[in-house]
């Protein structure tokens, strides 16, 4: 007995079992199987067992379609957006309708469920970065030996401590949004400064070259105060300050949709510094109040202010 005969006998046996298990009219199915098999040549399966198995699965699908049930579907590998692969399996299901005929051509439709892939959006990443900074960011740079006003891009500026009458010089053609600094202590006077300030187009003094004095007052928590009345666009506000025997502190309070306080220190080990307050998109439409004082000081400590520049 050859391999083809063995395969035929195994297939007959499998089909009989399927008929017994799934079809209500067992005798009818078995008769059809016997008749169909006897009408084929004796060695019908040169492909061996693989062909027999394929035929068995096909007949099983037809029998299940007539009675209702399910057959396991193929496994699939799905590539996800992250580059990983996930192996899933599906089940193809059918249900027999009471009005569907059991003879003739039967249309089988499967609709395996597909689970949508979740996606993390990165839109607004830039906004998120801006939110982490807030409306006001601050840095400190060294005082320049000379400050020339105006520079390209300057929109408003004020100079303090240049006159013995305590008058503050401001940019004549400026926006006027930087208020004249107030001496909270009432004791500020012109004293030698480590920075020379030159200006043109000022009021009440038109121009000056090599001004080397700034306002200085005894150290206190708050010595000078001024405001930026409105932030009309993203800008920078530079405060040229310093002191002696004191750690100078610049405290900026932004008021807009909420209130944000930014504090920057200029240590006494430095002769002074330019505290640059960067006003971001979030600051537009708000208002800024700035106080200059000392976080700590020794006897005789002083806090000084030379200029404020809006760009």
Mean pLDDT value? 75
Return the string of H and E elements. Answer: HHHEEHEEEEEEEEEEEEE
Q: Provide the β-strand percentage band.
A: 35-45%
Name the overall outline.
elongated
CATH architecture of the largest domain: Sandwich
**CATH class term of the largest domain:** Mainly Beta
Query: Mind telling me the C-alpha Rg?
Result: 44 Å
Number of domains: 2
Characterise the protein shown here:
20% of the residues lie in helices and 42% in strands. The protein has 311 residues and is an alpha+beta fold. A hairpin with a 5-residue loop joins strand 1 (69-79) and strand 2 (85-94). Strands 3, 4, 5, 6, 7, 8, 9, 10, 11, 12, 13, 14 and 15 form a 13-stranded mixed sheet that branches. A two-stranded antiparallel sheet has the order 1-2. It starts with a helix and ends with a strand. Helix 1 (3-22) packs antiparallel against helix 2 (26-38) and helix 1 packs parallel to helix 3. It has 2 domains: 3-94, no CATH class; 135-310, Jelly Rolls. The chain is built from 4 helices and 15 strands.
Topology of this protein?
Layout: H1 3-22, H2 26-38, H3 49-67, E1 69-79, E2 85-94, H4 125-133, E3 136-142, E4 146-149, E5 156-159, E6 169-171, E7 182-183, E8 189-199, E9 202-203, E10 208-218, E11 224-228, E12 235-255, E13 259-266, E14 272-279, E15 287-310
Parallel strand pairs: 4-8
Antiparallel strand pairs: 1-2, 3-14, 5-6, 5-15, 6-9, 7-11, 8-10, 10-15, 11-15, 12-13, 12-14, 12-15
Helix pairs in contact: 1-2, 1-3
């Amino acid at each position: 007995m050859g391999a083809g005969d063995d395969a035929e006998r195994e297939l007959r046996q499998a089909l009989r079992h399927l008929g017994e298990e799934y079809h209500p009219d067992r005798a009818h199915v078995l008769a059809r199987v016997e008749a169909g098999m006897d009408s084929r040549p004796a060695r019908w399966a040169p492909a061996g067992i693989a062909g027999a198995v394929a035929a068995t699965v096909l007949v099983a699908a037809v029998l299940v379609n007539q009675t209702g049930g399910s057959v396991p579907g193929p496994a699939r590998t799905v590539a996800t957006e992250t580059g990983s692969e996930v192996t899933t399996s599906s089940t193809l299901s059918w249900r027999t309708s009471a009005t569907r005929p059991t003879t003739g051509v039967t249309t089988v439709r499967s609709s395996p469920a597909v689970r949508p892939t979740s996606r993390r959006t990165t839109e607004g990443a830039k906004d998120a970065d801006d939110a982490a900074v807030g409306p006001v960011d601050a840095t400190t740079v060294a005082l320049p030996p000379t400050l020339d006003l105006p520079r390209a891009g300057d929109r408003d500026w004020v100079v303090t401590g240049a006159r013995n009458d305590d008058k503050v010089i401001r940019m004549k053609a400026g926006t006027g949004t930087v208020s004249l600094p107030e001496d909270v202590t009432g004791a500020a006077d012109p004293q030698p400064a480590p920075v020379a300030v030159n200006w043109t187009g000022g009021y009440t003094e038109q121009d000056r070259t090599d001004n080397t004095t700034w306002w200085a007052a005894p150290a206190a928590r708050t010595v000078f105060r001024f405001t930026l009345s409105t932030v009309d666009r993203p800008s920078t506000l530079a405060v040229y300050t310093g002191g002696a025997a004191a750690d100078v502190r610049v405290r900026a309070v932004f008021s807009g949709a909420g209130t944000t306080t930014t504090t920057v220190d200029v240590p006494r080990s430095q002769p002074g510094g330019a505290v640059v307050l960067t006003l971001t998109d979030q600051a537009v439409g708000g208002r800024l109040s700035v106080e200059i004082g000392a976080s700590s000081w020794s006897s005789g400590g002083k806090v000084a202010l030379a200029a404020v520049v809006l760009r």
